[in-house]
Amino acid sequence: MSEDPTPVSDSPFRSEPSARDEAPQFVLPLVVRIEKAEPPARTDALETAARAVLTILADERSAGAGEWAGAMRDWQDARIRKVVRRARGAEWRRAEALPGITVTGKSAEVRVFPPVPLDGWPKDLARLQVSGTDLDDPEPPVDADPAAPVLWLNPDLGMSAGKAMAQAGHAAQLAWWELSDEERAAWRDAGFPLAARTADPARWSELTGAGLPLVRDAGFTEIAPGSCTVVADHPALRREPHGPGRAAATRSE
Question: Transmembrane stretches, by residue range (predicted)?
Fold first, then answer.
């Protein structure tokens, strides 16, 4: 497992109240570039946000004595909050000037930043809007590759693109936590391939009961507390010892 394995009973992704609720709370900022003339496709934005989260988790600056390691530890010692804001033009250029990582998809650009205190956002990020991240897919997304990781979204929930991006990021992180070091390295070296798709309503119950990482929302925004939002279906987690009872869950903002 990872260098800092956390038992499921004491995971920061569990949903029941814990000492982590009393710890100082941090948030992982993500900024999506949305230009008026060329907004990204919704599905690509979700997938790019998920890869951005994985990229900062895997970055050497986030581990050991890295420059972001302390912030990453503080963030993961509390609730695993993520907030997606939008930017364009000069706003995007100012965001790019701050320490972080920009991940590019087919049409989407998402920049992820080291965690910050809930009330300590950098000025150039704090001024960005959370609302207005409603995006569409010009064409229906193709079927997901069954051999690649898939983030399955709850078909019964309506979420803005920004909310869904944060949820996809949570699901990708849950999968990352459940993988061995070797499995993480293989995923990273392949460029974090993944797909984000809305599950078939008839299959959603099966997915939530399959023992796969499952995101439960805290209900701070848009949807009811405890709602199951995304299942992370990574091929490496479909076999033992990752069976029923090992699913991780988190509440997100």
Answer: none
Which candidate, 158, 144, 55, places its Cα nearest to that of 102?
55
Q: Are strands 81-87 and 26-33 parallel, antiparallel or unpaired?
A: parallel
Sign of CA dihedral 10, 12, 15, 21: positive
Alpha helices in the chain (DSSP H): 42-58, 69-77, 89-96, 123-126, 161-178, 181-189, 201-208
Q: List strands edge to edge, sheet with 150-153.
A: 195-198, 150-153, 228-233, 214-216
pTM of this structure: 0.86
Compute the average pLDDT of residues 47-69: 97
Beta strands in the chain (DSSP E): 26-33, 81-87, 101-104, 109-112, 116-117, 150-153, 195-198, 214-216, 228-233
